[in-house]
Amino acid sequence: MRVHAVDAAHPDPRAIAQAADALRAGQIVVFPTETVYGLGALALDRDAVKRVFEVKGRPATHPLIVHVLGEEEAKAYAAEWTPLASELARAFWPGPLTLVVKKADFVPSEVTGGSDAVALRAPSHPVARALLSALGRNEAIVAPSANRYQSLSPTRAEHVVSSLEGQDLFILDAGPCPSGIESTVVDVRDTEPRVLRPGALSIPALRAVAPSLAYVRGIEADESASRASPGQDKRHYAPRTPLMCAASRSAALDRARVLTEHGDRVSVVLFGESLRHDEQDPHAAIHVLPSDPEAAGAALFALFYELDRQKYALIIVEPPPDAPGWEAIADRIARASVASANTLGV
Ligand code: TXA
Ligand code: MG
Hints:
The chain is of the alpha/beta class and 346 residues long. The chain folds into two domains: 206 residues, DHBP synthase; 94 residues, 3-Layer(aba) Sandwich (Rossmann fold). The protein has a ten-stranded mixed sheet with strand order 1-8-2-3-7-4-6-5-9-10, with helices on both faces. It has a four-stranded parallel sheet with strand order 11-14-12-13, with helices on both faces. The radius of gyration is 20 Å and the shape is globular. Bound molecules: threonylcarbamoyladenylate and magnesium ion (MG). Threonylcarbamoyladenylate binds next to β5, β6 and β10.
């Protein structure tokens, strides 16, 4: 691994030029976006795209997001660019929104996992934008989150190093990603837009522009969603440590108390309000995430990586608030706990 530290707001042009050269030479470059770190390759370099799948250990049928500078560049990769695609791109790009449209013929089927749709996004992170600018107008970068298949997305370069140990990668390290949760994926092929993956751009924000936006909440929706968005796997986004989502805060604390009395090292993750004095348990490690969903999302994966490092027997999470704006966090926690269910035997 070659890790190059760069300033997040004003990356050194020499480091960016080196990263662009590495991409042109068919290599994989890890770069920060405003959501999570991406494992980047040139979108039209089929061999490099195939290597992205190998490095990640991801099945070839799971498509990759194509990163571009903006709407003009995105249009070139689409066979059809609907008025709705335009409206959403103008409202939210650059930013954490991915639009699924019909692909242009030249987009390699390796990128789309054989589908005739392509997912496009214009990231806002200055390092991602500098890299795209250095490549030139017609180039785009495919980038899945820079982690092994089915594990947590990396929000810091250290997470990439621990998740993809032993791989020969060029890493641009610009510190923590500000949103910390992946982009929101919206299918805009029909007149009725549909959320395929809730993410950093909230559903309420999207509905302010597209009031008819459909979102079927929860992993029960996966059966139908998996046809439209094959990368949506129940076992995504899981820390290595078994994780369970308790029915309530008091259930989480009760469970933690029983387990710590049995000598297990347990960690509890809460949202918003800190514990009252009479709820404090001196034995369980309690982490309180912020009451604002954006701030909680920014901290969530970094906390899970840290808890993995501390090797707890179990992470118990209280249900996140059942309120607009919390959809992405609720989705990631539900997936992480389903992923753990086999390990836990529940
Ligand atoms: O924030 C993000 O989106 C990050 C950064 C690096 O941009 N990338 C990311 O990529 O999370 P990945 O590969 O881990 O997740 C891609 C998501 C999956 O849910 C996948 O199903 C969906 O986008 N997707 C990609 N291409 C698609 C396509 N052609 N049709 C439908 N869904 C697609
Ligand atoms: Mg991913």
